[in-house]
Every structure is written in structure tokens, then in C-alpha cells.
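Fold sample X.
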Amino acid sequence: MMDQNHHSDKTEEAQPSEKKTTRNCCNGFKMFLAALSLSFISKALGAVIMKSSITQIERRFDISSSTVGLIDGSFEIGNLLVIVFVSYFGAKLHRPKLIGIGCIIMGTGSILTALPHFFMGYYRYSKDTTFNPSENSTSNLPTCSINQNLLPNRTSLEVVGKGLEKDSGSYMWIYVLMGNMLRGIGETPIGPLGISYIDDFAEEGHSSLYLGNLLAVTMIGPIIGFILVSQFSKMYVDIGYVDLSTIRITPKDSRWVGAWWLGFLAAGLIAIISSIPFFFLPKTLNKPNKEKKASASSVSLPMKNEEKSQMASLTKTGQNVTDTVTGFLQSLKSILTNPLYVLTLFLTLLQASSHIGSITYVFKYVEQQYGNSASETSILLGFISIPSLAAGMFTGGFIVKKFKFTLVGIAKFSLCAHMTSFLFHLINFALICENKSVAGLTLTYDGNTPVASHVNVPLSYCNSDCNCDPTQWEPLCGSNGITYMSPCLAGCTSSSGSKKSIVFHNCSCVEENGFQSKNNSMKLGECPKSDDCKRKFYIYIVVQILTLFSAALGSTSNIMLIFKNVEPELKSLAMGFHSLTIRTLGGIPAPIYFGALIDRACMKWSINNYGKQGSCRLYNSLLYGHTFFGLTTGLKFPALVLFVVLIFAMKKKYQGKDIKASENETKAVNEANSGPLINDAKVDHETHI
């Protein structure tokens, strides 16, 4: 009797202990989920800030678009450096601490990206302006004077569409590249290790719910990122260091650089803060009671048997390694000889390359094509892209799950979605604006005659005796709607006012146009875009919403096609190899070759302090638009052709088979919806824009 009472007392004591353990397990898991959510937010925040700041970085460091593309691609390079280590050793090490270390590295990379700002000195938007807050910054602007001579140290190396030089003069941008590479290294363990940890310790059947919530919470990062970039872009780059009343350029000027570095500092600090909870989490959480009971017998085994098994495993280590390598090579051969997988791999690579290149330079395109400031562009693209992508992905996943398409049906649905997106995309060609009227680039200097080429346009009699520096870019807008490259080249002989309100008078090149008003006074700043271009901009916004929504419709289906066309045991390898291919052949080269071709559309380059080509001041709008959309179209169209080939190949293979998206397909949809989180390349670019 006493034994029974004693046993019941132990049972009663054990029950609260088990409840306490379960409660601690739940609390630990909730803490991990909250910390991982914050790290995903900071990850997406840093990515959006980098993409949105591309134009600002290009101007600040006086570099070309192709160099900026290399900086952008360095993120993928950093990721590839450690992805094998993380994939193989990550699950065997302390995953929360590894994620925490990754967050610290990611934050350090963002801060390193911002550091050059503090070592480069004040930003000089004009080489004729030696910045001194105590002096009038407009006093050094040269006007037309027949008696003035060019200073002997002036360079006449005006690079106008020719002689593209790779040396940017200043190599401080390498720190930005290294910072972005560090950010790529730090982000690598967050996605795969975080998701695997959730899958291991979440309640059975709840993993998809947690991953869906994680994806939804992640969208906070891009929203915050676009808002921050929009606000920081309005601030002058040297805010807090200079007297802003002496700055004569505005945010819509092609030389304006906002406080880009503040965004990276903010992203870095948030990333480092998000790392703190991970260092207080256990390597493993307590398993559910059923699993404990199942493992109780193994704990009670004699220690001798355990030691014997360890010794046996050590003797077989060499053989296991050989078998593992052989098995890996056979598995890799199996997926690479699978024509359906290879077709899907190539078409998604083409789509991803188009998507990555478009995201990288869409900010610059909107600024240059429609004359918007960086602040306006950032908030606008963020406002239209995030809801469009989220709605498209949700709708696409819902349609596939609702109608239970066959595997061939899923491919057809994805083809229809991407075909619709492609047709909307073609409308962009009709929305390209005409070139601005710029004396010396699209017109003769007197503004009367169009020129066949913007290279080496000869001086007119209105400015031939002015001894102007042809490298100067100080644009003015005439009453005739023509932009002139500098007061001297416009033939202006005098000025009045100061700072932003300076007015130039007696501009002979404006007077030569024969206007009856003879109003030959000019103010600083380029002439605004035409009303027709503004109307095209509003249509462009609508087209972008439709294009993004329809493209996102097929994103879930694309992910399903990757792993549903291979053997179930090869699914992880298929997804991993797909991610590796997209990063290597898409994420790294796409920004570089997009940038190199966009550089060819430049009509006016800046000249840096070393007399070398800097960043582009003015693009040929027609050539830029046709190059930008021509590249994306050239990548999208072959992908559609491969889609058609894939569907025919799938029909041939699955003919007569009833492959319904029942339970397996429903599971596939859930995996696909969390796929962008696992496939870091996909999430990195889809959450940016």
C-alpha cells in the first residue's frame, strides 16, 4: 500500500515536471520564431536598401552601371562562398548560434558598406565648386567671357558615349563591394537553418503554418526599407556636415546624392540586434513526450553496446565517405539526365536573370526616363510592387490548390501566367519617352538643328569664342524648353542672385532661336519632361502592377515543377542545385551585363578628379528604354518557348497517368509557398521589388 502511495506521489510530481518541460519547450520555440522573424525582416530590409540605393552609390563613387552591377552581384558571390559549409555542417552544429553569428556578419557587412562615407570627404557635385560652407558655392560658376582662358590643369577628356574606361579613379567602392559580400555570407545560414529548426521542433503538422506566417512577417522588411530609402534620399549626402543652404542642386538633379549611408547603418544595427536572442537558445529543444518514450529504451541500453557501436562506426567511416560521394554523384547524374528537370532549370534561369536585371536597374530607369527623384521612385515602386507580388503569389497558390491541377495542368497554368506577364511587359516599349532637347547632345548649340550623333558636336557661333570647358555639367533650362550643359556653353555673360536662385543673363545661344520674347535669361536645372511623357508614366505604373501580379501568379507553380519532376528522394538535391545555378549564372552576371549595355546609352559622362570617366549624367532615353526592355524581352521569350517544349515533354511522359494534385499536390503547394524562403535566391529578389 505504501509502495502504491509512493508511486502515485512520484506520478503526481512527474506530471507538473512534464508540463513545465513542455511549457519551456513552447517558450523556447516561440522565442526562436520571434527572433527568426526579426532576422528575416532585417535580411529583407538590407536587400531592399541595397537595390534602392544603386543609383545613389553610382553617383557618390563616380562609377559606371557595370561596376555597380558587380557590387550588386557580390552578394551572391559571398553566399556561394559558404553555402556548401552551411548546407553540410549547419545541421550538425548549434543552429541558433550559427544564425546569430550570421546576423552579426550581415549587420557588419551593412555597416562596412556605409563606412566609406566617413572617409571620402565632402561630395563635390561640380568640379568647379570647391565646397566651403562659409563661401557662396555658386560664385565659381564660369560664364562666357571672350577674354577668359581655360586653366592649364583643365582636362578636355569629355567622354561622350565613347572611350569607356574601367578606372573610376577612386576605389573606395571596393569597401561597398566587400560589405555587400559580407552581407551575403551572413545571410546564408538564416534561411535554411532557421527553417530546418522550425521543421524539427514545431508541433506535427504546424510547420507550413509557421513558415507561411514567417513569409508574411518578412514583408515588413521591404515596406520599412522603401520608406527609409525614400526619406533618406531627400536628405543631402553630407547632411550634418555642411550648410545645406549653400547646396544649389535639388533631389531631381542627375548629380543629387541622398544620405544613402543612413539606410545601411540602420539595416546593420537592426541585423546585429536581431542576433542577440539566438545566443540564449538551446541547440535542440525538448522533444514531445511520445518521442521521449520511444527513445527511452535506447537510453537504457548498456554503455558497452553503445561503445561497441561507436567503434564499429569508426571503422566504417572511410567506406561511408566513399559511398556518400558515389551516391551524391549518381544522384546528381540522375537529375541532370532528367530532361524535364533540365528544361525547368533553364527556363527558370532565363526568367530569374530577367527578373534580377530588371530589379537592379528599374529604379534608375524610372528616374532617368520619367524625371522622378530617387525618393519618389523608391516609395512608388515599393507601394506598387509589394502588394502586387504578395497578391499574385497568394492567388496563384490558391488557384492551384482549389482546382487540383494535374502536374501538366500546373505547367499550363504557369505558362499562361508568364505569357500574360510577357504581353503586359511588351506594352513598356510604347511607354518610352522621347529624348530631351539638349544643346550640344541632341541639338546644335544654338538649338536650331537636330544632330545625327551626340559625339563631338561642334560649337556654334553663339559660344565659339567663350573658351568653355566642354567637360562641365551645370545644366540650365532656357525659356525655349531646351536644356544647356553649362552657363558658358549657353553663351551667358552675366549672373545675378546666389545659391539656388541664381539667374544667368544675356545667354546668346538662347537668343539665336528667334523667339519674339527675346527672353534670354536662364535658371539652373534641367528642363522638365514633356506632358506626353508624364502621361506615359501613369500608364507605366498600371502596366507594372499587372505585369508583377501575373508573373507572381506562376511563381508557386514554377517551384512545384522543379521538385515534382524528379524522384522524391532527389527533391532536396534538385532544389539545392537549382538555387546554386540561379545564383551562379543569374544572380552574379545579370546585373553586370545589364549595366554594361545600359552604359552604352549614356550621352554625357561625368569626369572625376582623376580625369577619368565617372557616372552618367544624361542617358539617351530611347536607347536606354529599348536596351533595358530589349534585354528582359530577350530573356523572357526563350523561357516561354522552353515552357511549351516542357509541356509537350510532360504530356509524352505522363500520358494516360492520372497525376492529381490531391494530398501530395496539396503538400507540394505548402512546400512551394515556403519554397521562396528555402530558395534564398528567389526570396532575395522577389522581396526587393
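Fold sample Y, listed below.
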Amino acid sequence: MKKKIGFLSVMVLLAGLLIYTACKKKEDVPLVGNIEGIVTNSQTSQPIQGAVVNLSPLNSSTGTGADGKYNYKDLDPKEYTIQVQKDGFVTNTKTVTVIAGQTIRGDITLSPIATALSVNLTSLDFGTNLTTLPFEIRNTGAGSLTWNVVENVTWLSVNPISGSTTTETDVVNVTVDRTGLSQGNYSQSISVTSDGGSKTITVSLIIANPNAPTVTCANAINISQSTAEVSGNVTSIGSSNVTQRGHCWAASPNPTTLNSFTTLGPTSATGAYTSQLSGLQANTTYYVRAYATNSSGTGYSTEQTFTTTSTPTVPTLTTNSATSITETTASIIGTISNLGSGNIIEHGHCWSTSSGPTTSNSHSSLGSASQTGNFTSSLSNLAPGTTYYVKAFATNSAGTGYSNEVSFTTNATATIPTLSTDAITSITMTGATVGASVTDLGNATITEHGHCWSTVQNPTISNTKSTLGSMNATGTYSSNLTGLSQNTTYYVRAYATNIAGTAYGSQQTFTTTADPYIVSSGLIAYYNFDNQNANDIIGGNNGINSGASFVTDIPGSSGYSASFSSSSNAYIQFPNNPLKTLSTYTINLWIKTVTSSAILFAFDVNAGRAFGIYQNKIGIWCNNVGCSSSFSVDVTSVLLDNNWHMLTLTFSSSSQKMYIDGVMISQASNMYCSSFNSYDGSIMGKQNNGLGNCYYYNGKLDNFRAYNRILSDSEIQQIYNAKL
């Protein structure tokens, strides 16, 4: 009984092991991928801790550690968006694509949010009697602004001296202490520093003579370009009667009677007075103070400022080149860049056949304008083939301003174009290239041009044609004629159309080629993929496509090639081996790849014998090193450049030759060949090494030919020249 139980236990263990092994093989196939990355400061390149990393479309979040790193594991292969957030930094995003079995880098940088310091005043004037004045600090940027006020002046103090602000306004009070200060004018600066810049504020005060008069000053009124009116008031005559009074002014702060001033005479009583300021400069800021003088000295008021008005100016304009030019019309855009000193009452364009047009010549009238910007004028009733000079204009109360001058020439009366049909080249079974020369546009832009062709003479644009669009200069062009029938005579003419009609070039004729095989003697298999399948157009050994696609990237001028992707395990399998039983043969094909190991054609389905590239060498490879052999030439620089190249292998028991692009590059006499031509079935783009491993080609392949004989050098060159 114990023996039976032991035997059953062993059998259960063996079954479990087999199930585990089967499952393990399935698990070995990668189905998911990972993302990992590091978040750093864009300015310091240091890692950022505590950043929130959001992953879409999973709507999942994680955080960064002290090293700035984060990761997401076991993700389905597809595109993801990473968004990273952190207080004090600008949010940043990045898109990555996860690939099964790989870890994708998702490194990302964050930029610190910038602050910006702003203060509402640049100066504080305490005059003769003020004690405390405020100013405001604001953050006009983003984030939190940290600021400090720096001053080294004994007679003033600030409160508070530091702070921080995001969107709110901080108020700082500046207080002056006049104790112990001698008579005179005092001026110092305080600095506001921050992580968003720095500002300087000028602080001034006056220590007046206690026996001098006391005055105040009102704001200026009736301000013009050169004059202003300002009032003053003697509030105390001081220790004796006022001997002179008025206002003093300058273009810099703290004016005195050493600057410009008025003299309104003496007074023995307090009271108001008015000064008329003249001789001022336009558009200039002035500082003004009232003053009064007695035997003890001169007393000044607190300072006021005003700005004179600007000199009246005409508008400022520019104009662009004319467009949409015809025989009698044109369109032109002007730009008002400055309105001048008043709203525009009229604007437009003026033009003439002489330089220097004004509004006394022909002009458009577009009415008033209250803001800067572009405007368009349509010029009409022009003479064909005539040069015109144009300016934009705009008028306000100061006068009329003109733009720069441009000129253009109207089109002459249109005629049909003049052109010729040039030589026909690159003739194939289904296509050809034909040129043309346009020698005269016919005084008008060509709206369409190309070639028209037919199997009957004198084709027109009602027949098959190419359409190459507009043309505004003489020159040459060419058309690729496609979709033609083989071994057929065609007639072709160039054409060009403008507003006057369609012109044709002289008629040319050509006949498409008839032989699709180029070299047909001994040809036993031919796959050109032009019908977007893997059919053999010679011997009927049709292939079964497994994942290969058919694309128009080809070595010749028309048709399709087969595109193989190793990531999707694409290949084409054939029921028969066209080289079976042959001891002498030629393989000819076109490839486009950058892969240093590429299986092009396997001679059998399961045993692993194949022709292709391995470790940058061309040769015949099988499932063990002992039976593999290659030509000695490294093909990295001559073949693996992602351009189309033609490979030709000629094989006999005594000589093996390899050609690239019609030129023999290497020859051998003992390449391995035993029994690989005795197998049924063959594969294009895949090798099964017989040990359960498969290798796939990554690239494009076209025009695969198999011959039951050795092709000559001239025949190989003939195929290469035909690009078929």
C-alpha cells in the first residue's frame, strides 16, 4: 500500500512540474513594460523630492523620493502621458510609448515659478511738515515673493522691514524724525530687495527756517505744450512781511529760485496767489514748488509734478507690397502704427503713375479710424502694363501723414502661354517621365500646367493628364506618367493654362516596354509583389503571406515591394523550394535594410538553412556554426544604409559569387551546400533553426528571382540597370 501511495505521489509531482514548465514558457513572453524616471530642477539639475507624478489614461499618481525618482510597472504597451506637479514649480508633461519587455525612460524637468517685485511709488516727499507716508509692495509674477527693505538713514525708519506676498498688497510705512536736523533740504534712498528683483525709492524732506514764510502748492491746471497754471498759498508770513513770492520749477526734483521762477511781489498777509508758467518744453515732466521770502529766508512748499502736452503730430503709417495684381486692379494693405495727436478723420491709399502721390491724386477713402491696425484698399480703373506708385495716408487734426512708397506694374493684356514638350525618359512597362519648357507665361500667372496623353494623336486636357498647379515664372518641369499599359504607343503634349486659355506643346510619342522579366532564360520563380500578393508570376509557386505588408517604396519607378517587420514576426511561406534538386542556380533580389543580421530566404521550412546577412557578412547559414559559411566582405557600408540594393548569388559546386548592385564583391569555392536543396517548402523573411528558435527579417524586399543556371555578369548588370 505504501509503494502505491509513493508511486502516485511521484506521478502527481511530475504532472505539476510539466504544468509549471508549460506555464513558465508562456510567462517568458513579455506582455507588459515599465516606465521609470527622475524629476529634476531645470535651473540647478538637482532632484526634486515630493513631486506628484500623474499617469494618463490610467489616472494613477505616485510621488518622487529624495532622489527625485519614480516608476510605474507592468503597464500595457501603448502611449501614456506623464504630468508632474510641485508647489513652486511650473507643471510639465511628457508623452512616452511603452513597449512590451522594455523599461522606458520618463525623465522630466520642472522650472521654478518666477516672482516679480512691483512698488507703487518711486519717491516720497515729506515736505516741511509730513511725518509718515506709505508705499505698497506687490507681486506681479507667480509664486510667493519674499522682500526686505534696506535703509541706512538716521532720520527715517520703516515698518515692516520684511515680508512675503503672493497676490495680496503689503503696505510699508516710512516715518521721518526731524529732531536735531539743521535747516535745509534732505534726500536719501531706501532699497526694496526680493527674489523677484529690487526697487529704489527716493525719500526727501525740508527743514524750514522757523522764521521764514510757510507756503503750500496746488496741482497744475490748464496744461498745454508750453504753459501751465499753478496756485500757491502763503499760510504764514513768518517773522516779517513777505518781500517776494511765486513758484519755481525745473525738469528735476526740488526746484529753487535758482531755477525758473515767477515773481508776484511782496505781501503783508497770508493768502492765495497764482502763477502762469511759460516757456515749457512739450511732453516734459516738471517739478514745481511755491515759495515766499522774508528777511529771515525763503520757505518752499511740498513739490508737485505735471507733464506738458505733446506737440500735435500726424499719424504714422507703413504700406506693404501690392497683391492680387491684374490688368486693371490691385489690392494693397496699409498699417496705422500711431494715431498721432488725435483721432483719424480719413485714411486710405493714394496712387499715381509718378513718384510721390498725395491725396490730390487718385485715392481710396476708408473713413475715420480710432485705433491702430491694418486696412486694405482695392485699386481699380488702372491701365494695363503700367507702373504705379502708392502710399498709405491718414489725416487727423494735425494734418496728413504718409507711409513709405511702393510701386507695382499692372499685368499686360494676357495671351496664352508658350511652351514645348521635351524629351521622354525612364520608360517602363507602366510609366514614363516627360519634360517641358515654359518660355512665356502669356502676361498672366499660369493657373494649371502639366502633361496630357492618350493612345490617339493630339491629346488635350480632356484626356488623361497630370496637374502640377500654378506657375508664376518661366522654366522647366516634368511629369511622371503612371498607370500605362505595357507595349503600347502613347502620344503626349505639355500644356499650360492662364486666363487667356490653354496652350499645348509639340506632340511627342513613346512606347512602353513589353518584357517584365528582363532576363527570362532559365527563370524558374519570380515574385515582384506588384499585385500586392506573394504570387509567383512564372512557375505558380504562390506564397502564403503571414504579416508582410505591401508598400510603394520600391527600387524602380512603379509597383510595390514586400515590407517585413521582425517585431510582428512577418514572413511569406512557399509550398515548394524552387531550387530543389539544383546544383547550379542564381538568386537575385532587391533589399532595403539597416539590420546587420537579416534572414532573406530560407531554403527549407524547419531545418534552418538560409541565405542572408549575419554579423555584417553575407552567406548561407544554418542551425550550427559548422555548416555555415559566408563571403568575407563586411557589407556594413555598402549594403546596410537603408537604401535599395540588388543582391545576386550565383552558386555551383566549384564556384560561388556574390554581387551587390551588379558588381561582384566576393568569390568562394567551398561554401556549404550539402542537402539544403533537397527540402520541400521555403520561407522568405524567416529562419527556423530547427531548435525551436525563429529569426525574422526587418526591412523591405522586392523582385525576387530564381534561375536554374548561372547568370553572366552582363545579365546581372542588365537587371540592375532596369531596377526591376
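Sample Y note: The longest helix spans residues 2-27.
Also: The chain has six domains: 35-112, 117-206, 208-307, 316-409, 418-511, 523-722.
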